[in-house]
Design a protein that fits this description.
Elements (H helix, E strand, L loop, with lengths): L22 H5 L5 E6 L2 E11 L2 E5 L5 E5 L2 E6 L4 E6 L5 H4 L8 E10 L3 E20 L2 E14 L4 E9 L6 E9 L2 E9 L7
Antiparallel strand pairs: 1-2, 1-12, 2-3, 3-4, 4-5, 6-7, 7-8, 8-9, 9-10, 10-11, 11-12
């Protein structure tokens, strides 16, 4: 991937302005693109690598967001990072969130840095929250919203993640996900790499 393709995209968490790309700007670039937004600003990330279900999305300043089945599983280059997830064998994201018909409980562990916070146990509950409409670059999508209540007692951390899911194949068009305590990223698929998630 050419450095020039992302040299105008600024890191979301370093207090840069909010980036609002237009449909024409996205279409003009031959890359898969995703917008990442934090309370401090936003950036457009470029899909740079695929390894099975693992996607690596790159921004400037050596920022990388890794996704699997639409969920953030690792980050690099942020002021706090998710170093890794250890997920259960029956991971509901692998089955596809569009298959949820009732709340589902599961557990996993997370590693965060800085601070060497490794092996943090997390209890999670996925809750189907009904249908909604979202608009991306002027196109309306009919989606299912799924809320994920997460609780990490050892870290005194509770929050709620949100996912807006295609009802046909489980593709996650939009999400709000906690990377580490106090840092939530909103992800919006602008020019998605699309494949079935189930």
């Amino acid at each position: 991937m050419s450095r020039s393709s992302v040299d105008t995209m600024k890191l979301a968490v370093q207090r840069h302005p909010h980036v609002e790309p237009t449909a024409a700007e996205v279409a003009a670039k031959p890359y898969y693109q995703m917008q990442a937004t934090s309370p401090d600003g936003s950036a457009v990330l470029i899909l740079g690598n695929l390894d099975g279900q693992r996607q690596a999305w790159y921004g400037t300043h050596q920022v990388v967001v890794f996704l699997e089945h639409g969920r953030i599983v690792q980050t690099a280059g942020l002021h706090q990072n998710l170093d890794g997830l250890q997920l259960p064998a029956n991971d509901p994201f692998a089955r596809g969130l569009q298959t949820l018909t009732a709340p589902v409980d599961y557990s996993y562990t997370q590693d965060w840095s800085p601070g060497y916070r490794y092996g943090v146990h997390v209890d999670a509950r996925l809750i189907p929250a009904g249908t909604e409409q979202i608009s991306i670059l002027g196109t309306t999508h009919q989606v299912l919203r799924v809320d994920e209540r997460i609780n990490a007692p050892a870290a005194h951390d509770r929050t709620i993640n949100h996912y807006w899911v295609d009802p046909q194949d489980g593709f996650i068009w939009k999400s709000e996900q906690q990377v580490a305590p106090g840092l939530i990223l909103q992800l919006l698929q602008l020019h998605p790499y699309r494949e079935k998630q189930g």
